[in-house]
Amino acid sequence: MIEAVIFDMDGTLIDSQPIWYQASTEFFQQNQFPVTLAEMMTLTGSPVGTLVDYVLQKYGEKEKSRTQLIEELMAYVVGKVLEAKPLMPNVKDVLSTLKQWGIKIAVASASPRNMLQGIVDSCGIAEYFDYLASAEELEYNKPHPAVYLHAAKQLGVPTSACFAVEDSVLGMISGKAASMKTVVIPEKSEWDDPRWALADYKLVSMSELPMLIES
Predict the structure, then answer these.
(1) Contact 108, 153 (CB under 8 A)
(2) Cα 109 to Cα 145: distance, rounded to the nearest angstrom
(3) Same domain, yes or no, for 59 and 110?
(4) I need a labelling partner for 4 at 20 to 30 A (CA). Which of 63, 102, 169, 175 fits?
(5) DSSP string for residues in 46-84
(6) Catalytic residue (one of 8, 15, 53, 130)
(7) Which residues fall in a coiled-coil region (predicted)?
(8) 62 and 106 within one domain
(9) Are residue 38 and residue 134 in the same domain, yes or no?
(10) What is the pLDDT of residues 109-143, one digit of tens each?
(11) pTM for the complete prediction?
């Protein structure tokens, strides 16, 4: 029996991936790194530190330090996301249904806590969540299972009774490694990726999740 559902944030609850791609490209170009949108798209689901490391390794260091670039990139992207409030279709209805059923709800994200809190507040969904887990506060980020294990522990629910809902391969691996049932909702362009075979369930849209839990 499923007692908790733990969601990824970017690309799962909010349609932030296009914003991440565009905003990170703009940020690096403004800081004299000639990155392309295509490059940023290849790093889907990667932590901010990984993006910065990739750019520094490929294009060399400029005036700003790694730490400064990470902090400024996060601030830039968070501002763009909060401005857009890009909640995915059916998210609020699904969260409301799960809450009515007494299922615990959490987020397990690679993004920093201030971004997670800002998003749930600005999108009007904060009331549905029992916990927001940020891998930025842990020793390891996705695809390591740490953030999912941490979220389940905070909810007081065994991992075997949790759904991990994801849109990226790295996130799916993280949920699987935490011994959770993994539910993936891929973008249409990534639907045929053979790696989704590792997931327990593959859905077309978020609206299918309550029916899956009931079945």
Answers:
(1) no
(2) 11
(3) no
(4) 169
(5) --HHHHHHHHHHHH---SS-HHHHHHHHHHHHHHHHHHH
(6) 8
(7) none
(8) no
(9) no
(10) 988 888 899 999 989 999 999 999 999 899 999 99
(11) 0.84
Q: What is the CATH number of the domain that holds 187?
A: 3.40.50.1000
Tokens at 93, concatenated = 């209805």
Residue in 10, 15, 53, 121 annotated catalytic: 10
Distance, in Å, from the CA atom of 100 to the CA atom of 127, rounded to the nearest integer, reads 12
Which residue matches tokens 């007692």? Answer: 3
Take residue 117 and report the two structure tokens written for it.
Answer: 């809190």
**DSSP letter (8 states) at residue 87:** B
Six-digit token string for 77: 């992207």
Domain identity same for 19 and 94: no
Q: What are the tens digits of pLDDT across the range 36-80?
A: 999 999 887 677 888 999 999 999 988 899 999 999 998 998 889
Residue 195 CA to residue 208 CA, distance in Å, equals 21
Residues in the chain: 215
Question: Scanning the structure block, which residue is given the tokens 């969260």?
Answer: 95
How far apart (Å, rounded) are the C-alpha atoms in residues 91 and 75? 25
Q: How distant is the alpha carbon of residue 134 from its chain centre? A: 10
Cis omega (within 30 of 0) for bond into 143: yes
- Based on the residue annotation, tell me whether 193 is a catalytic residue of this protein: no
Backbone angles phi, psi at 104, to 5 degrees: -75, 145
Residue from 153, 11, 171 nearest 162 by CA? 153
Amino acid at 55: V
